[in-house]
Amino acid sequence: MKLAIKRIAFLVVVLGIWQLIYSIGIFENIVFPSPSKVANALYTGFADGDFVKALGASFRHLFMGLFLAILFGTTIGVLLGKSRQADETAGMYLIALQSIPSIVWVPLAIMLFGFSEFAVVFVVVLGGTFVMALNVRIAIHSVPPQLIRAARTMGTNGIPLFFRIEVPSSIPYFMTGIRLAWAFSWRALMAGELLSNGPGLGYSLRYAQDYARMDQVIAIIIIIGVIGAVVDQLVFSKLEKNVMRRWGLLKT
Predict the structure, then answer these.
(1) What number of CA atoms fall less than 13 Å from residue 143's CA on the CB side?
(2) Which of 134, 224, 225, 129 is closest to 181 using CA atoms?
(3) Rounded to 5°, angle at Cα 212 from 209 and 215
(4) Residue 197 has pLDDT above 80, yes or no
(5) DSSP 8-state secondary structure symbol assigned to residue 249
(6) pTM reported for the whole predicted model
(7) What's the pLDDT band for 130 if we cut at 50, 70, 90?
(8) Residue 161 has what DSSP assignment?
(9) Domains of the chain as residue ranges with CATH
């Protein structure tokens, strides 16, 4: 309860400072909206259904791209984690690919798929695949060696060893990878939709910018931030904590 009060108080202070800046007129050369105008833009956008349609399109792109990113990332991570040769040759390049900002992939996606939804999904996939692969590789490398030796002593080797020992031991890192893949894919989605011609929050943001609708720009930015925080805290953060608690990695 105290935490909720603190967060509400902080939000009130931020809105007060925002209103003060608007009232003083510090940004005289730009159309700086008041909190009430942004709130009206949010209400109008949802009442008209524009933001609802944009959210639906964005989540469709996200779910498609995130599913593929988890699938590809897990496959690559297992390959690098199980094969020393693959890890020594391709491991460093995986880190290099992960360091590339998602916006950099957009021109390549447009050249490959044009201004289509496939281009957006392509950017989302690349945004989440490499961070997922890195976490899965770390998960495989972090399996306690004594567990592997004990399993081999009892006659478990090969594929049974992987699924009975290494996979269960890797679940906490796997959940962390999914959480990070969601965050990176969400950011990549906005980058891809900004330069696309299809529906989505990113496209709506660019449309508002083209028509100098600063209130809509800020409203969409708020929506993007709120969704990112809410989904992370209510879904992925709880799943990760539950898994880590069951595995004895988090205090109850």
Answers:
(1) 25
(2) 129
(3) 85
(4) no
(5) -
(6) 0.85
(7) very high
(8) H
(9) 44-246 (1.10.3720.10)
